[in-house]
Amino acid sequence: MAIINENYLKLQGNYLFAEIARRVNKYKEENPDANIIRLGIGDVTRPLVPAIIKAMHEAVDEMGKAETFRGYGPEQGYSFLISKIIDNDYKARGISLDEDEVFVSDGAKSDTGNIQEIFGLDNLIAVTDPVYPVYVDSNVMAGRTGVIDSSGRFGKITYLPCTAENSFVPELPKNRVDMIYLCFPNNPTGMTLSKEQLKKWVDYARENKSIILYDSAYEAFIKEDNVPHSIYEIEGAKEVAIEFRSFSKTAGFTGTRCAYTVVPKEVVAYTKNGEEHQLNKLWNRRQTTKFNGVPYVIQRAAEAVYTEEGQKQIKETIDYYMTNASIIREGLKSIGLQVFGGVNAPYIWLKTPKGLSSWEFFDKLLNEVNIVGTPGVGFGPSGEGYFRLTAFGSRENTEEAVERIKTRLEI
Amino acid sequence: MAIINENYLKLQGNYLFAEIARRVNKYKEENPDANIIRLGIGDVTRPLVPAIIKAMHEAVDEMGKAETFRGYGPEQGYSFLISKIIDNDYKARGISLDEDEVFVSDGAKSDTGNIQEIFGLDNLIAVTDPVYPVYVDSNVMAGRTGVIDSSGRFGKITYLPCTAENSFVPELPKNRVDMIYLCFPNNPTGMTLSKEQLKKWVDYARENKSIILYDSAYEAFIKEDNVPHSIYEIEGAKEVAIEFRSFSKTAGFTGTRCAYTVVPKEVVAYTKNGEEHQLNKLWNRRQTTKFNGVPYVIQRAAEAVYTEEGQKQIKETIDYYMTNASIIREGLKSIGLQVFGGVNAPYIWLKTPKGLSSWEFFDKLLNEVNIVGTPGVGFGPSGEGYFRLTAFGSRENTEEAVERIKTRLEI
């Protein structure tokens, strides 16, 4: 008799976005003429830039000719892409990496979800709260978390609250943790750590032989100095950190699918007997066994991000979104709302006014000004009383939304 | 202290293709002028057909315009592709499927590697021997297999030998097995099961509440009647079988990456307490949590496979390879070699002459006629004494290789 993985039964339902859809649909039925603006979406809306489109057309043509056709590529990605990733994203910041330390993949979601496979089941994990749900769910599925309690917390996970009270800077855990998920610039709060703040985590990991799983999918949005783009800007991080990057938000690849993960050869974890093993080798074995690489055409698209034209063009798109972020941030501040993020990230995280719950504020925004956002509590218990808006809408919708909030929302 | 997944240490090294490369390179150094022909390769060589190239160009253009740009798609794949898969690959054979029973992915390697995640660790697995290594390795990594013995077999895996003695038809296991991996047309042997032979497996699974993981990545190469293209042609299979399909060999997508997996809603597995659960729901949860869909451009490419033009064009490519298969098969038979496969699959599996081991024959072929193939023992202990050649080379190389074997190989 085939038995299921019973850990799946411990997962919470994917209620957040389903519940949002339910409430929006109900409102639309009752108010068919309402002009609803969605600023909850975590998906980009600007098209791929011309340099990328050109590279894709060329690669498609190559695939149509026997002389230039490409079959299986290296599971880890083509050297033409990896070399440009290293030169532009790391070497330019004084970080040296070998080509076999970078693994090209179909998404940071896949990689942050799959990375836990190379770790033992007895490791204790820590996540910031609120948090991107994939870190938690992938560990629930593997059986590392125990069961969920009435507060929405899994018994064996260490939650690191990030709220206005601690300026969204997580405190070092008091109990032992072995695997630490950090995402900066943060989704959903849009907040960052300074180099000094991140250094504390690297030092902690080195002292405790823990591993930091560092998601820097939003690094391209960093505008301020002293905010690290890569964890490897911190001394010693190569011994303890795996870094995840993505072209999704950087270059509009949410529907095009390309990302990469850096696993330096210095990073080690241990057998129960204390024997050291390179995580680079384990991840390479995982990827070569269960993954067959990113489409050639897509890798050429990602390569084009690093051309002079490509860099100029994606910067324009990022500036477009960050101008939206600024419009939202300044607009909300001007009416006295407490807002966070939106400076080094495309997310604006606001404290709900008058002590409203996340869902109460969701309803208020929908009913009074026909704007859809994301309830903060959907990202974790410490997100209660917060709300996320994103900068990925069109300029027109963003301006209209802010105008409605400023002039028509009763707060 | 972070602990590794110690199951990884039970894996065998990826020695097969590394060892082939080592021997070929050594030969080339010693014989720099040798004209080596590679017929060991499992990768396609013909370009993507014009209908696919056209669809990709169109989709690339859509991605460059704000009005038609696509961000995140459904993790399970776009309806435009799933509906065509169902109509062409299933409905046309009398099999009805709902759209939410088909999951589009980046490859059958990913899916056959990942599918075991939704099953408990106490399930006993069975594989044919020889076998595609991903089925075994992904279960080793998860901890279902025990350790390997000196014969190359993992203690907790049930191996089902497929050799000339049983005409490559695996016998039903005598012990209990819960998860059964079957691949037909088979890689590496190129052999198939008849509907009657496959029905025995479906009946076994229904009686024992086992699950069949059916890899039919090579179904497009089937030429003979009474060879099932889909396991769902067998009565009752929808209750017990998950089917994997791929565009890799069907339409030359090894470097383009698109596949799909069918999980009917009828297929159930159990908790230890005997509670039934739909595997469709578990797989959906796995995919939505750890995967973000196939690139839009690639899904449009796959859709073009099902146009009238696309069908005609990919058939020409398949015929090209199958003519190669026939040239190899008939050429080898004409000099008295015992050959299998190559009729409904692009693989030719030959019994080595004079009782040579797989590696001895490899060296003989390389040294005497400069042809590289794949030693059968690399696919499992029962592959010893066999050798794989593939039909994916160019016509010219295939003809030249067969001519060399016929005229210059001493057997």
From TrEMBL, chains A, B:
Pathway: Amino-acid biosynthesis; L-lysine biosynthesis via DAP pathway; LL-2,6-diaminopimelate from (S)-tetrahydrodipicolinate (aminotransferase route): step 1/1
Keywords: Aminotransferase, Pyridoxal phosphate, Transferase
GO BP annotations, alphabetical order: lysine biosynthetic process via diaminopimelate, diaminopimelate-aminotransferase pathway
Entry keyword annotation includes Acyltransferase: no
Catalytic activity: (2S,6S)-2,6-diaminopimelate + 2-oxoglutarate = (S)-2,3,4,5-tetrahydrodipicolinate + L-glutamate + H2O + H(+)
Residues that, per the record, bind pyridoxal 5'-phosphate: 72, 108-109, 132, 187, 218, 246-248, 257, 292
UniProt key word Transferase: yes
Record EC number: 2.6.1.83
Listed GO MF terms: L,L-diaminopimelate aminotransferase activity; pyridoxal phosphate binding
Stretches assigned to the Aminotransferase class I/classII large domain: 35-405
Top-level taxon of the source organism: Bacteria
Binding of substrate, residues: 15, 42, 109, 132, 187, 292, 388
Residues carrying N6-(pyridoxal phosphate)lysine: 249
EC class of the enzyme, as a word: transferase
Cofactor: pyridoxal 5'-phosphate
PANTHER family reported in the protein's UniProt record: AMINOTRANSFERASE
Complex formation: Homodimer.
Similarity field: Belongs to the class-I pyridoxal-phosphate-dependent aminotransferase family. LL-diaminopimelate aminotransferase subfamily.
NCBIfam families per the UniProt record, alphabetical: DAPAT_plant (TIGR03542)
Protein purpose: Involved in the synthesis of meso-diaminopimelate (m-DAP or DL-DAP), required for both lysine and peptidoglycan biosynthesis. Catalyzes the direct conversion of tetrahydrodipicolinate to LL-diaminopimelate.
Name this protein carries in UniProt: LL-diaminopimelate aminotransferase
Native source organism of the sequence: Acetivibrio clariflavus (strain DSM 19732 / NBRC 101661 / EBR45)
Gene that this sequence comes from: dapL
